[in-house]
Protein backbone atom coordinates (compact mmCIF):
# COMPACT_ATOMS: atom_id res chain seq x y z
CA UNK A 1 0.00 0.00 0.00
CA UNK A 2 1.21 3.41 -0.75
CA UNK A 3 1.75 5.88 1.97
CA UNK A 4 -0.35 9.00 1.94
CA UNK A 5 1.28 12.22 2.90
CA UNK A 6 -0.37 15.38 3.91
CA UNK A 7 1.81 18.38 3.81
CA UNK A 8 0.90 21.86 4.62
CA UNK A 9 2.66 24.53 2.66
CA UNK A 10 2.77 26.84 5.60
CA UNK A 11 2.15 26.47 9.24
CA UNK A 12 -1.34 27.16 10.40
CA UNK A 13 -0.70 30.44 12.15
CA UNK A 14 0.80 31.86 9.01
CA UNK A 15 -2.46 31.22 7.20
CA UNK A 16 -4.18 34.03 8.97
CA UNK A 17 -3.90 37.54 7.67
CA UNK A 18 -5.41 40.03 10.03
CA UNK A 19 -6.31 43.64 9.48
CA UNK A 20 -4.04 45.94 11.48
CA UNK A 21 -4.93 45.98 15.15
CA UNK A 22 -3.13 47.22 18.23
CA UNK A 23 -0.18 44.94 18.93
CA UNK A 24 -1.42 44.00 22.36
CA UNK A 25 -4.74 42.85 21.00
CA UNK A 26 -2.96 41.09 18.20
CA UNK A 27 -0.79 39.27 20.69
CA UNK A 28 -3.83 38.22 22.66
CA UNK A 29 -5.41 37.15 19.45
CA UNK A 30 -2.38 35.14 18.45
CA UNK A 31 -2.35 33.40 21.77
CA UNK A 32 -5.93 32.31 21.20
CA UNK A 33 -5.10 31.31 17.66
CA UNK A 34 -2.63 28.84 19.00
CA UNK A 35 -5.41 27.13 20.89
CA UNK A 36 -8.06 26.88 18.25
CA UNK A 37 -6.14 27.02 14.99
CA UNK A 38 -7.19 23.42 14.43
CA UNK A 39 -10.82 24.49 14.54
CA UNK A 40 -10.75 26.25 11.21
CA UNK A 41 -8.18 23.81 10.00
CA UNK A 42 -10.76 21.09 10.50
CA UNK A 43 -13.24 23.15 8.51
CA UNK A 44 -10.69 23.21 5.76
CA UNK A 45 -9.86 19.58 6.01
CA UNK A 46 -13.48 18.70 5.60
CA UNK A 47 -13.61 20.76 2.49
CA UNK A 48 -10.59 19.09 1.08
CA UNK A 49 -11.72 15.63 2.07
CA UNK A 50 -15.10 16.16 0.60
CA UNK A 51 -13.56 17.29 -2.62
CA UNK A 52 -11.35 14.28 -2.73
CA UNK A 53 -14.15 11.88 -1.88
CA UNK A 54 -15.09 10.98 -5.43
CA UNK A 55 -11.62 9.59 -5.69
CA UNK A 56 -13.22 6.59 -4.17
CA UNK A 57 -10.82 3.66 -3.76
CA UNK A 58 -8.05 6.15 -3.62
CA UNK A 59 -5.80 7.84 -1.10
CA UNK A 60 -8.78 8.47 1.09
CA UNK A 61 -8.39 5.66 3.57
CA UNK A 62 -4.91 6.87 4.40
CA UNK A 63 -5.73 10.49 4.09
CA UNK A 64 -8.80 10.26 6.30
CA UNK A 65 -7.17 8.03 8.85
CA UNK A 66 -4.33 10.40 9.13
CA UNK A 67 -6.78 13.20 9.88
CA UNK A 68 -8.71 11.13 12.32
CA UNK A 69 -5.53 10.41 14.13
CA UNK A 70 -4.19 13.90 14.01
CA UNK A 71 -7.32 15.93 14.60
CA UNK A 72 -9.60 13.38 16.18
CA UNK A 73 -12.28 14.23 13.70
CA UNK A 74 -14.86 11.54 13.22
CA UNK A 75 -15.97 10.87 9.66
CA UNK A 76 -18.60 8.36 10.63
CA UNK A 77 -21.92 9.18 9.14
CA UNK A 78 -20.52 11.40 6.43
CA UNK A 79 -22.46 10.58 3.30
CA UNK A 80 -22.11 11.40 -0.37
CA UNK A 81 -25.40 10.98 -2.18
CA UNK A 82 -27.34 12.00 -5.25
CA UNK A 83 -24.37 12.18 -7.64
CA UNK A 84 -24.98 14.33 -10.71
CA UNK A 85 -22.62 15.03 -13.59
CA UNK A 86 -21.31 18.22 -12.01
CA UNK A 87 -22.27 18.02 -8.35
CA UNK A 88 -23.09 15.73 -5.47
CA UNK A 89 -24.62 16.06 -2.05
CA UNK A 90 -22.61 15.96 1.16
CA UNK A 91 -24.21 15.50 4.57
CA UNK A 92 -22.82 15.23 8.05
CA UNK A 93 -23.55 16.55 11.47
CA UNK A 94 -20.65 16.43 13.81
CA UNK A 95 -19.81 17.68 17.26
CA UNK A 96 -16.20 18.47 17.98
CA UNK A 97 -15.10 18.78 21.56
CA UNK A 98 -12.38 21.26 22.35
CA UNK A 99 -9.07 20.34 23.84
CA UNK A 100 -8.00 21.42 27.30
CA UNK A 101 -7.44 25.07 28.07
CA UNK A 102 -9.97 26.34 25.58
CA UNK A 103 -12.49 28.87 26.72
CA UNK A 104 -14.56 31.49 24.96
CA UNK A 105 -16.77 31.37 21.96
CA UNK A 106 -16.88 32.63 18.44
CA UNK A 107 -17.49 31.60 14.89
CA UNK A 108 -15.90 31.17 11.54
CA UNK A 109 -18.14 32.73 8.91
CA UNK A 110 -19.56 30.77 6.00
CA UNK A 111 -17.38 30.92 2.92
CA UNK A 112 -16.97 29.38 -0.49
CA UNK A 113 -13.87 27.25 -0.57
CA UNK A 114 -12.25 27.04 -3.97
CA UNK A 115 -10.29 23.91 -4.79
CA UNK A 116 -7.62 24.04 -7.46
CA UNK A 117 -5.24 21.61 -9.06
CA UNK A 118 -1.82 22.56 -7.76
CA UNK A 119 0.13 21.98 -10.94
CA UNK A 120 -2.15 23.98 -13.24
CA UNK A 121 -3.92 26.34 -10.84
CA UNK A 122 -7.23 25.32 -12.43
CA UNK A 123 -10.25 25.43 -10.13
CA UNK A 124 -12.16 22.16 -10.17
CA UNK A 125 -14.66 22.49 -7.32
CA UNK A 126 -16.36 24.92 -4.98
CA UNK A 127 -17.68 23.89 -1.62
CA UNK A 128 -19.85 26.17 0.52
CA UNK A 129 -18.46 25.77 4.01
CA UNK A 130 -21.17 26.62 6.54
CA UNK A 131 -20.70 28.89 9.52
CA UNK A 132 -18.83 27.05 12.23
CA UNK A 133 -19.80 28.20 15.73
CA UNK A 134 -17.65 27.25 18.62
CA UNK A 135 -18.09 27.58 22.32
CA UNK A 136 -16.29 24.96 24.35
CA UNK A 137 -16.84 22.84 21.28
CA UNK A 138 -18.04 23.18 17.74
CA UNK A 139 -20.87 21.75 15.71
CA UNK A 140 -20.54 21.24 12.02
CA UNK A 141 -23.76 20.89 10.10
CA UNK A 142 -22.98 20.06 6.54
CA UNK A 143 -25.86 19.49 4.19
CA UNK A 144 -24.78 20.99 0.89
CA UNK A 145 -24.09 20.28 -2.72
CA UNK A 146 -20.51 20.37 -3.84
CA UNK A 147 -20.23 21.91 -7.29
CA UNK A 148 -17.68 20.45 -9.65
CA UNK A 149 -16.53 23.27 -11.91
CA UNK A 150 -14.10 21.25 -14.03
CA UNK A 151 -15.10 17.65 -14.52
CA UNK A 152 -12.05 16.83 -16.62
CA UNK A 153 -9.76 18.12 -13.86
CA UNK A 154 -11.60 16.05 -11.28
CA UNK A 155 -11.49 12.95 -13.47
CA UNK A 156 -7.79 13.48 -14.06
CA UNK A 157 -7.23 13.75 -10.32
CA UNK A 158 -9.20 10.56 -9.86
CA UNK A 159 -6.99 8.74 -12.31
CA UNK A 160 -3.78 10.10 -10.80
CA UNK A 161 -5.00 9.13 -7.37
CA UNK A 162 -5.97 5.68 -8.57
CA UNK A 163 -2.65 4.99 -10.23
CA UNK A 164 -0.20 5.66 -7.49
CA UNK A 165 0.99 9.07 -8.68
CA UNK A 166 1.41 11.99 -6.38
CA UNK A 167 -0.85 14.98 -6.83
CA UNK A 168 -1.60 18.28 -5.16
CA UNK A 169 -4.70 20.26 -4.30
CA UNK A 170 -4.82 23.92 -3.32
CA UNK A 171 -7.73 25.21 -1.24
CA UNK A 172 -8.40 28.92 -0.92
CA UNK A 173 -11.08 30.92 0.84
CA UNK A 174 -11.57 34.12 2.79
CA UNK A 175 -13.77 33.52 5.84
CA UNK A 176 -14.07 35.93 8.74
CA UNK A 177 -13.26 34.84 12.20
CA UNK A 178 -14.91 36.31 15.25
CA UNK A 179 -13.63 35.32 18.63
CA UNK A 180 -14.91 36.70 21.91
CA UNK A 181 -14.51 40.48 22.10
CA UNK A 182 -11.56 40.47 19.73
CA UNK A 183 -11.87 42.31 16.44
CA UNK A 184 -13.00 40.28 13.46
CA UNK A 185 -10.10 38.72 11.63
CA UNK A 186 -10.23 38.36 7.87
CA UNK A 187 -8.54 35.12 7.06
CA UNK A 188 -6.94 34.41 3.75
CA UNK A 189 -6.68 30.68 3.55
CA UNK A 190 -4.23 29.25 1.09
CA UNK A 191 -3.59 25.64 1.85
CA UNK A 192 -1.75 23.10 -0.25
CA UNK A 193 -2.23 19.42 0.22
CA UNK A 194 0.12 16.95 -1.36
CA UNK A 195 -1.06 13.40 -1.53
CA UNK A 196 0.10 10.14 -2.93
CA UNK A 197 -2.38 8.07 -4.87
CA UNK A 198 -3.46 4.62 -3.95
CA UNK A 199 -3.01 1.52 -6.07
CA UNK A 200 -6.61 0.57 -6.79
CA UNK A 201 -5.56 -2.73 -8.30
CA UNK A 202 -3.88 -3.72 -5.08
CA UNK A 203 -6.96 -2.85 -3.03
CA UNK A 204 -9.44 -4.70 -5.21
CA UNK A 205 -7.24 -7.77 -5.28
CA UNK A 206 -6.81 -7.85 -1.54
CA UNK A 207 -8.37 -10.89 0.05
CA UNK A 208 -11.76 -10.06 1.50
CA UNK A 209 -12.33 -6.91 -0.60
CA UNK A 210 -15.42 -8.60 -2.00
CA UNK A 211 -17.16 -11.98 -1.78
CA UNK A 212 -19.75 -13.60 -3.99
CA UNK A 213 -22.51 -14.70 -1.62
CA UNK A 214 -24.92 -16.29 -4.07
CA UNK A 215 -25.22 -17.02 -7.77
CA UNK A 216 -28.43 -17.81 -9.64
CA UNK A 217 -28.53 -18.76 -13.28
CA UNK A 218 -31.76 -17.61 -14.87
CA UNK A 219 -33.19 -20.13 -17.30
CA UNK A 220 -35.13 -17.42 -19.04
CA UNK A 221 -33.05 -14.25 -19.16
CA UNK A 222 -34.61 -11.18 -17.56
CA UNK A 223 -33.88 -7.99 -19.54
CA UNK A 224 -31.10 -9.92 -21.26
CA UNK A 225 -29.43 -10.92 -17.98
CA UNK A 226 -28.86 -14.61 -17.40
CA UNK A 227 -27.13 -14.39 -14.03
CA UNK A 228 -28.46 -12.91 -10.79
CA UNK A 229 -25.86 -12.89 -8.03
CA UNK A 230 -25.30 -11.18 -4.69
CA UNK A 231 -21.91 -9.90 -3.60
CA UNK A 232 -20.65 -8.22 -0.48
CA UNK A 233 -18.14 -5.41 -0.88
CA UNK A 234 -15.85 -3.78 1.62
CA UNK A 235 -15.99 0.01 1.52
CA UNK A 236 -12.42 1.30 1.23
CA UNK A 237 -13.46 4.67 2.65
CA UNK A 238 -14.96 5.59 6.03
CA UNK A 239 -17.87 7.32 4.26
CA UNK A 240 -21.22 6.27 2.88
CA UNK A 241 -21.07 6.66 -0.89
CA UNK A 242 -24.01 6.36 -3.26
CA UNK A 243 -22.52 5.44 -6.59
CA UNK A 244 -25.55 4.43 -8.61
CA UNK A 245 -25.43 2.10 -11.59
CA UNK A 246 -21.99 0.60 -12.09
CA UNK A 247 -20.87 -1.85 -14.77
CA UNK A 248 -17.83 -4.07 -15.18
CA UNK A 249 -16.62 -6.12 -18.12
CA UNK A 250 -15.52 -9.67 -17.52
CA UNK A 251 -13.06 -11.80 -19.40
CA UNK A 252 -11.34 -15.10 -18.91
CA UNK A 253 -7.92 -15.94 -20.29
CA UNK A 254 -8.18 -13.00 -22.69
CA UNK A 255 -11.62 -13.98 -24.09
CA UNK A 256 -14.70 -11.86 -23.50
CA UNK A 257 -17.03 -13.48 -21.01
CA UNK A 258 -19.68 -10.74 -20.89
CA UNK A 259 -20.45 -8.03 -18.37
CA UNK A 260 -22.07 -7.43 -15.02
CA UNK A 261 -24.36 -4.67 -13.90
CA UNK A 262 -24.65 -3.36 -10.33
CA UNK A 263 -27.99 -1.58 -10.67
CA UNK A 264 -27.78 0.39 -7.45
CA UNK A 265 -24.46 0.45 -5.64
CA UNK A 266 -24.57 2.14 -2.26
CA UNK A 267 -21.40 1.69 -0.24
CA UNK A 268 -22.41 1.55 3.38
CA UNK A 269 -19.85 1.86 6.10
CA UNK A 270 -17.65 -1.19 6.17
CA UNK A 271 -19.54 -3.93 4.30
CA UNK A 272 -22.52 -3.68 1.98
CA UNK A 273 -24.39 -6.27 0.02
CA UNK A 274 -25.53 -5.61 -3.51
CA UNK A 275 -27.25 -7.39 -6.39
CA UNK A 276 -25.21 -8.09 -9.50
CA UNK A 277 -26.92 -8.92 -12.77
CA UNK A 278 -24.80 -10.56 -15.43
CA UNK A 279 -24.90 -11.21 -19.13
CA UNK A 280 -22.36 -13.98 -19.21
CA UNK A 281 -21.35 -16.73 -21.58
CA UNK A 282 -22.18 -19.54 -19.21
CA UNK A 283 -21.03 -22.35 -21.50
CA UNK A 284 -17.58 -20.75 -21.56
CA UNK A 285 -17.66 -20.42 -17.77
CA UNK A 286 -18.69 -24.03 -17.18
CA UNK A 287 -16.22 -25.27 -19.75
CA UNK A 288 -13.41 -23.52 -17.92
CA UNK A 289 -14.62 -24.80 -14.55
CA UNK A 290 -14.51 -28.39 -15.74
CA UNK A 291 -11.69 -28.44 -18.27
CA UNK A 292 -9.67 -25.40 -17.29
CA UNK A 293 -6.18 -25.23 -15.87
CA UNK A 294 -7.26 -24.61 -12.27
CA UNK A 295 -8.78 -26.95 -9.71
CA UNK A 296 -12.07 -28.57 -10.65
CA UNK A 297 -14.80 -25.96 -10.38
CA UNK A 298 -12.41 -23.04 -10.15
CA UNK A 299 -12.47 -20.15 -12.58
CA UNK A 300 -10.41 -16.96 -12.61
CA UNK A 301 -12.27 -13.95 -13.90
CA UNK A 302 -10.66 -10.72 -15.02
CA UNK A 303 -12.73 -7.71 -14.05
CA UNK A 304 -12.44 -4.31 -15.70
CA UNK A 305 -14.40 -1.24 -14.63
CA UNK A 306 -16.57 0.11 -17.44
CA UNK A 307 -19.03 2.82 -16.40
CA UNK A 308 -20.97 4.59 -13.67
CA UNK A 309 -24.24 6.46 -14.11
CA UNK A 310 -27.03 7.72 -11.90
CA UNK A 311 -30.61 8.30 -13.07
CA UNK A 312 -29.37 7.72 -16.60
CA UNK A 313 -26.67 10.42 -16.41
CA UNK A 314 -23.04 9.47 -16.74
CA UNK A 315 -21.15 10.43 -13.56
CA UNK A 316 -17.76 11.22 -15.04
CA UNK A 317 -15.79 11.61 -11.81
CA UNK A 318 -16.97 8.25 -10.45
CA UNK A 319 -16.64 6.62 -13.85
CA UNK A 320 -12.98 7.65 -14.00
CA UNK A 321 -12.32 5.85 -10.73
CA UNK A 322 -14.37 2.81 -11.77
CA UNK A 323 -12.53 2.58 -15.09
CA UNK A 324 -9.25 2.49 -13.22
CA UNK A 325 -10.32 -0.76 -11.55
CA UNK A 326 -8.73 -3.84 -12.97
CA UNK A 327 -8.75 -6.97 -10.91
CA UNK A 328 -8.97 -10.70 -11.06
CA UNK A 329 -11.01 -12.98 -8.86
CA UNK A 330 -10.93 -16.73 -8.48
CA UNK A 331 -14.32 -18.29 -7.83
CA UNK A 332 -15.05 -21.84 -6.83
CA UNK A 333 -18.24 -22.61 -8.70
CA UNK A 334 -18.71 -25.83 -6.72
CA UNK A 335 -19.53 -23.62 -3.75
CA UNK A 336 -22.59 -22.41 -5.60
CA UNK A 337 -23.48 -25.82 -6.97
CA UNK A 338 -26.92 -25.87 -5.36
CA UNK A 339 -27.89 -22.70 -7.14
CA UNK A 340 -26.32 -23.94 -10.35
CA UNK A 341 -28.37 -27.13 -10.37
CA UNK A 342 -30.04 -26.14 -13.60
CA UNK A 343 -26.81 -26.85 -15.48
C1 LIG B 1 -20.97 31.24 -2.52
O1 LIG B 1 -21.22 31.32 -3.91
C2 LIG B 1 -22.62 31.37 -4.23
C3 LIG B 1 -22.76 31.31 -5.73
O2 LIG B 1 -21.83 32.10 -6.36
C4 LIG B 1 -23.23 32.62 -3.64
O3 LIG B 1 -24.62 32.64 -3.91
C5 LIG B 1 -23.02 32.61 -2.13
O4 LIG B 1 -23.50 33.80 -1.57
C6 LIG B 1 -21.54 32.44 -1.79
N1 LIG B 1 -21.42 32.27 -0.35
C7 LIG B 1 -20.59 32.98 0.38
C8 LIG B 1 -20.60 32.69 1.84
O5 LIG B 1 -19.86 33.82 -0.10
C1 LIG C 1 -0.53 -1.56 -8.89
O1 LIG C 1 -0.15 -2.81 -8.36
C2 LIG C 1 -0.09 -3.84 -9.33
C3 LIG C 1 0.17 -5.15 -8.61
O2 LIG C 1 0.75 -4.98 -7.38
C4 LIG C 1 0.99 -3.51 -10.35
O3 LIG C 1 1.05 -4.53 -11.31
C5 LIG C 1 0.62 -2.20 -11.01
O4 LIG C 1 1.66 -1.82 -11.91
C6 LIG C 1 0.44 -1.10 -9.98
N1 LIG C 1 -0.05 0.07 -10.67
C7 LIG C 1 0.52 1.27 -10.54
C8 LIG C 1 -0.08 2.35 -11.34
O5 LIG C 1 1.48 1.46 -9.83
C1 LIG D 1 3.74 3.61 -5.48
O1 LIG D 1 4.41 4.80 -5.14
C2 LIG D 1 5.33 4.65 -4.10
C3 LIG D 1 5.88 6.02 -3.78
O2 LIG D 1 5.98 6.82 -4.92
C4 LIG D 1 6.45 3.68 -4.53
O3 LIG D 1 7.36 3.50 -3.46
C5 LIG D 1 5.81 2.34 -4.85
O4 LIG D 1 6.80 1.44 -5.34
C6 LIG D 1 4.74 2.53 -5.92
N1 LIG D 1 4.08 1.25 -6.11
C7 LIG D 1 3.88 0.71 -7.29
C8 LIG D 1 3.20 -0.59 -7.32
O5 LIG D 1 4.25 1.29 -8.31
C1 LIG E 1 -15.26 -12.22 2.61
O1 LIG E 1 -15.10 -13.46 3.29
C2 LIG E 1 -13.97 -13.49 4.16
C3 LIG E 1 -13.85 -14.89 4.72
O2 LIG E 1 -15.09 -15.39 5.10
C4 LIG E 1 -14.17 -12.45 5.25
O3 LIG E 1 -13.06 -12.44 6.10
C5 LIG E 1 -14.32 -11.09 4.61
O4 LIG E 1 -14.57 -10.11 5.60
C6 LIG E 1 -15.47 -11.10 3.62
N1 LIG E 1 -15.50 -9.81 2.95
C7 LIG E 1 -16.64 -9.19 2.65
C8 LIG E 1 -16.53 -7.89 1.94
O5 LIG E 1 -17.74 -9.66 2.91
C1 LIG F 1 -32.40 -11.10 -8.44
O1 LIG F 1 -32.59 -11.70 -7.17
C2 LIG F 1 -33.15 -10.85 -6.19
C3 LIG F 1 -33.24 -11.59 -4.89
O2 LIG F 1 -32.45 -12.69 -4.87
C4 LIG F 1 -34.51 -10.37 -6.65
O3 LIG F 1 -35.02 -9.47 -5.72
C5 LIG F 1 -34.39 -9.69 -8.00
O4 LIG F 1 -35.69 -9.35 -8.49
C6 LIG F 1 -33.73 -10.61 -8.99
N1 LIG F 1 -33.55 -9.90 -10.25
C7 LIG F 1 -33.76 -10.46 -11.43
C8 LIG F 1 -33.56 -9.59 -12.62
O5 LIG F 1 -34.08 -11.63 -11.54
C1 LIG G 1 -18.61 -3.95 -21.41
O1 LIG G 1 -19.83 -3.72 -20.67
C2 LIG G 1 -20.78 -2.92 -21.34
C3 LIG G 1 -21.99 -2.75 -20.47
O2 LIG G 1 -21.72 -2.97 -19.17
C4 LIG G 1 -21.20 -3.56 -22.66
O3 LIG G 1 -22.11 -2.71 -23.32
C5 LIG G 1 -19.97 -3.79 -23.50
O4 LIG G 1 -20.36 -4.48 -24.69
C6 LIG G 1 -18.97 -4.61 -22.75
N1 LIG G 1 -17.76 -4.77 -23.54
C7 LIG G 1 -17.26 -5.96 -23.80
C8 LIG G 1 -16.01 -5.97 -24.63
O5 LIG G 1 -17.78 -6.98 -23.39
C1 LIG H 1 -19.43 -18.58 -25.69
O1 LIG H 1 -18.06 -18.94 -25.73
C2 LIG H 1 -17.77 -19.96 -26.67
C3 LIG H 1 -16.29 -20.26 -26.55
O2 LIG H 1 -16.01 -20.77 -25.29
C4 LIG H 1 -18.14 -19.50 -28.08
O3 LIG H 1 -17.90 -20.55 -28.99
C5 LIG H 1 -19.58 -19.09 -28.12
O4 LIG H 1 -19.89 -18.54 -29.38
C6 LIG H 1 -19.87 -18.05 -27.02
N1 LIG H 1 -21.29 -17.77 -27.00
C7 LIG H 1 -21.76 -16.55 -27.12
C8 LIG H 1 -23.26 -16.41 -27.02
O5 LIG H 1 -21.04 -15.57 -27.27
From TrEMBL:
Listed InterPro entries: DUF3712, Tag1
Protein name, UniProt field: Uncharacterized protein
GO (cellular component) term, any one: fungal-type vacuole membrane
Record key words, sorted: Membrane, Transmembrane, Transmembrane helix
A Pfam family matched in the record: DUF3712
Upper classification of the organism: Eukaryota, Fungi, Dikarya, Ascomycota, Pezizomycotina
Keyword Transmembrane helix belongs to the record: yes
Residue ranges crossing the lipid bilayer per the database entry: 37-60
